[in-house]
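User: what does the whole thing look like in 3D?
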Amino acid sequence: MDFEDTAEEAAFRAEVRAWLEANAKPRRHREASDAMAVDEDRGSMAAAKAWQAKKAQRGFARVTWPKELGGLAGSAMQQVIYNQEEGKFDTASGAPFAIGLGMCIPTLMAYGSKDSIERHVKPALRGDEIWCQLFSEPAGGSDVAGLRMRAEKHGEEWIVNGQKIWTSGAHFSDYGLLLARTDAQAQKHKGLTMFYLSMKSPGVEVRPIRQASGAANFNEVFFTDVRIPDAQRLGPVGEGWKVALTTLMHERLAVGGGLGGGLDVKELLSLARALELEDGPAIKNAGVRERIADWYVRSAGLKYTTYRTMTALSRGQQPGPEASIAKIVVASKLQDLSAFAMELEGEAGALKGEDAPMHGAFQMGWMSAPGLRIAGGTDEILRNIIAERVLGLPPDIRVDKELPFNELPGAR
Amino acid sequence: MDFEDTAEEAAFRAEVRAWLEANAKPRRHREASDAMAVDEDRGSMAAAKAWQAKKAQRGFARVTWPKELGGLAGSAMQQVIYNQEEGKFDTASGAPFAIGLGMCIPTLMAYGSKDSIERHVKPALRGDEIWCQLFSEPAGGSDVAGLRMRAEKHGEEWIVNGQKIWTSGAHFSDYGLLLARTDAQAQKHKGLTMFYLSMKSPGVEVRPIRQASGAANFNEVFFTDVRIPDAQRLGPVGEGWKVALTTLMHERLAVGGGLGGGLDVKELLSLARALELEDGPAIKNAGVRERIADWYVRSAGLKYTTYRTMTALSRGQQPGPEASIAKIVVASKLQDLSAFAMELEGEAGALKGEDAPMHGAFQMGWMSAPGLRIAGGTDEILRNIIAERVLGLPPDIRVDKELPFNELPGAR
Amino acid sequence: MNFDFSDDQKMLRDQARRFLGERCPVKAVRGVLEGAHGHDAALWKAIAEMGWTGTAIPEAYGGLGLGHLELCVIAEELGRVLAPVPFASTVYLFAEAILAAGSEEQKQRLLPRIASGERIGTFARAERPGAVTPKSIRTGFKGGKLTGTKTPVADGMDARHAVILARAGEDGGERGLALAVVDLDGAGVKRRALDSIDPSRKHAEIVFDGAAAECLGTGGEAWSLTSLVLDRAAVLMAFEQVGGADRCLAMAKDYALARFAFGRQIGSFQAIKHKLADIYIGNELARSNAYYGAWALSTGARDLALAAAAARICATQAFDFAAKENMQTHGGVGFTWEYDCHLFYKRSRHLALALGPQRVWKDKLVNELELSNAA
Amino acid sequence: MNFDFSDDQKMLRDQARRFLGERCPVKAVRGVLEGAHGHDAALWKAIAEMGWTGTAIPEAYGGLGLGHLELCVIAEELGRVLAPVPFASTVYLFAEAILAAGSEEQKQRLLPRIASGERIGTFARAERPGAVTPKSIRTGFKGGKLTGTKTPVADGMDARHAVILARAGEDGGERGLALAVVDLDGAGVKRRALDSIDPSRKHAEIVFDGAAAECLGTGGEAWSLTSLVLDRAAVLMAFEQVGGADRCLAMAKDYALARFAFGRQIGSFQAIKHKLADIYIGNELARSNAYYGAWALSTGARDLALAAAAARICATQAFDFAAKENMQTHGGVGFTWEYDCHLFYKRSRHLALALGPQRVWKDKLVNELELSNAA
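Assistant: Here's the predicted 3D structure for the full assembly of 1574 residues, as structure tokens:
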């Protein structure tokens, strides 16, 4: 047992590091109070695109992709190594490209025509074109396949009407991966078809969604008679659900970490050091110490779980299901730890922003935690996934598989 | 708002108290260490029967029953008052008669023939005859209606074969209320019929079940070609489930309290006063204090919830559903509080009985808690009941209602 | 056994619920949440006209002279609708402090204007993050002048009067403390609005630079007096929390019945059913503890401190849990600004932090248990 | 990144699992649980013949001279089958104490007989309920004689040797403490068997009345030495706990698949599915912390104390939760003596209390965090 690279990994890491040193500045130490900032766009979109282009040129934008598509045909572990090293530098964020390169383009690679692949993969890799994912709808959140957006065939075109929701980056995306219902008489999972389209198409309207926190990281996207050429269909008509599963499978491959904006025990420790309670420094209070320990073992457990996953990658194995536990643990911990910190702050805990202790870091964490417990799979959906895919327990009783979609309760 | 009796209640309480003073000794103060003892039989069966007979003679054995059946035609509140007052005296336990008088006899009253009522009610009330309830089976625990015991009609008799389980008091019972399957081709809930029988009938064999705690409070009861006259059938053939619901409804009417053997915050306080931790007396440790407070507010909440229920009774209203929360709260609290107390005791917490602190009260509580979380409805079943009956949420999806019983998965 | 509100008190509750249903829709809350004003002036006026601000103030001082049980009933309804008014600061804290310790003259002068709703009051303890302890109080009160900074002060921008916990003597601990009543419109007072997690209930920083103030009660008792006022306010606020928690359960239940996923009402999934059952359990326990607190408050029972702490802790836990799991039950939309879940989530935390955090109340509760068992 | 056991170590694990599967069925555990003997002598002999008792003891002292990673692997398998043998007392505590502080002569004399399984050892700290602190130690060690009472002592009836934490000097605190090695068959030693919550792991009270004993290590370091030995044992015991928790999850899962209610496998109900998912999450976190502890133990890393505390706390929480919810998942039968659930429930508590309760380890963990962050 050790934490060392293999010889090959060490060599690759050196290569990456040399390149980064030549092309970026080392990251300055980040204050706990900025903890939430890591979620946000470091620098403008222009800077992000410029950095993405640089990475793409060198093959680091997607290490695992085949060389002819702009990758290095490298291993998943090499991708992890690149990410670790880039994390030590003060680069622009790759966030705007994550969904496109992580989910949309891999789906295109699997189901798209040779032409479409040649046309779209490299511009996306370079960051010239940004993609978003258009699956969720007001009627289909946890139950993605419950979506209602209608696509009707007219000659060689499809005419699409309906609404999508929770679309990250729709407002700056050039293309979108769209799942729509092409047959309402078919069974729920059999009437869906996958397309991609230009977000500039006439009839596409993007509206930001204001979140409880006040921020707006997601959008609603309204479709009114939007025309999509049949050539932009991915997979056969009615097989959209199968295609979507490919996309979602790629979503789950991401190795955890960075979740929760990095607000964690370290920040709680600094706070507990700084504050005086009834009986002296908060850090000396037995109740405070027990809570710190409880949260520390969960954070450490996740960190070392990630090491185990990386070890599997490093040995060329598929990452185990361990990764699936990260969000459940992090989101609730963020919510509870933040609430607890606010109580340590006393009445001042009810303030936010610059008026609150530590620039309102814990208030921000507490306000964002409910979103983290929901986005990308609610706690309840993730527990189902663990129970079914990891433990092999039976699926929930399904009443929506046999009936035609338009006869399902709630779908009327 | 006050905790006073109404004039009528005060008068009744005085009556009860006078009678108790004339017939029983006041209860001596009970040590925390005996806390578990309240569950157990105070004195022998003979003493219990003698005390029951005395109560019955005066009408206090079942205050709410009609006078002609040996009651006082009193109110539920008067029953509560009697129980409160008796609790202050050192009397033999009424536990052996609770199931018979609380569940079996009310069912007999509702569905039995005039003769059977005349024959059985008063002997049961006097404690001359003890009844047990024979519903649960290995195949039907939470799902009582899943039971398999077969009853076949032969002329004017039914011949019964199968096994019951979790039968309290079967070993000292004279009669039993029996739910059996009389038609395996019918739907699950439609093939059941209710009977009563003498536990002395040939072919009835009672075996105690040894629990994880080592105690044996329950039995298995095996039936081999047991003959029951059709005259001892309660309700029509095939309507047994409807009859059983009457029985179970009576089970839920009981007002909470006394659960968990009375081991609670008071005992934890005494322990915390007695023990020294790293930083001084346990009672001064901030972590210990927080836990004590958390459990106290739950105990107090339940206590005052019972007061609210009694107020409803006192106003002649049906007790609200509040009562249904008691067991869920008490059982988990007992488990967690006991485990916590054992940790305060340090390595000595791993001992039991007289070798452990406070005569092993917390070890006993910790060992009995899992049973409390299961017996008379698991935590999970009780949450379903609250969600469905109190909050009006939909029932679980049922796959077992339409099929013939013998075609159900797991029933083969 | 008569452990419930009377029929008259229940009528008052129904009346309050109807009234607030009309006069305090969610958009009133959003109006204050998104606006610059510290409260909804029209609603405040209407509430005062109902006489609620003077519910427990004796008729001799312009109040209705009803008891605290009536005030509890009103508090629950105000909590249910998240009423964006300085009711707690003015009625539970300021008025209670004057009633508890004010001189006859002070009561004559101050209480009628509180009862009539003309004046808003508050109570200021905190001066910096962390615990408020006798030693932590730096604001000075010497020769009738206040000097120092109080922050955060609930409703500090809107209040005309405030009771200030300050240091009058040389003693650095409890015995050096005093309570002062100050006119916040007077000279030597500067206020600054602060950002709050629940902007429907705003806070201020108040800087005193030799502001004229008068003494409340006799010196040396300031800390125990503050503690008493907090106990009384905790019971009343517990009813606001119970009202809010109750509303969260109703919202979650309605959504669970109306929302379909996988072809079923989401309320038919055990994950949701059991979550809501747990909210119900927490709310019932909180309500029962609050009722006992109400009894202790209305009768001045010896165990008010114990009852208040239990009511406070249990109601805080219930509202916290109900508010966050209501959001979770709603899924994505629950996290939008458009849906109302976040208003309750924010208010639950606001109330959890007002009057001091759970830790302090738990410690107080165990102190009381030690005393009562010591007997 | 190589944060996993090696192929050889995994082979050892598989071998251990097969071996224990044959030699340590549940009825062996029940045999000790219901019997008078403190352990399964035949199993102990077989385990010793495999060389496990000497896994981490250098060959020079009759051991296999393997590392602690190999010992971790074996510990997990022993925990999985609830092996009713004094392995922890003898190997994690006694042998580790001798290795850490014994003189060359003591190692030569004692370790070979431990490695061979001929002798059983234990480590005695507690003297009364509550915390074990330097001040709490009353047992005296003067002029080579021990006087006082240790209770409870794990495997105290079966052990031949024991390391005793005792008071040698006048100093009433840490500096007055010493460690003594005593032959429990010697004169001046009385033992009494005690009732344990997990009778498959028994305890004793040991009374010393001038029993001859020898010093272990240099005086004054006894407390820090004890603390070091506990850290090392905590990592090893964490693997036993992870093994037990893993087994509980497997039992719960198998039952949830096999048991039908309401015409469905109970494993199809979300109440059960999510409960098992939570057990899985707890077990994964515990396993990962245990792995880091194993790395720190095997490399003597500077943050062993932090790693050991994290492994200990997380594994205790995981096994506690898995054991009690496995019982709950089984429903009524889970509470019967006949089913095996209670064996794991009892063992989980036994292990949670051995080596001191969570509170102590949490305090230690935060101490370490303070030190590391102080840098």
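In plain terms: The radius of gyration of chain A is 23 Å. Chain A has a mean pLDDT of 89.
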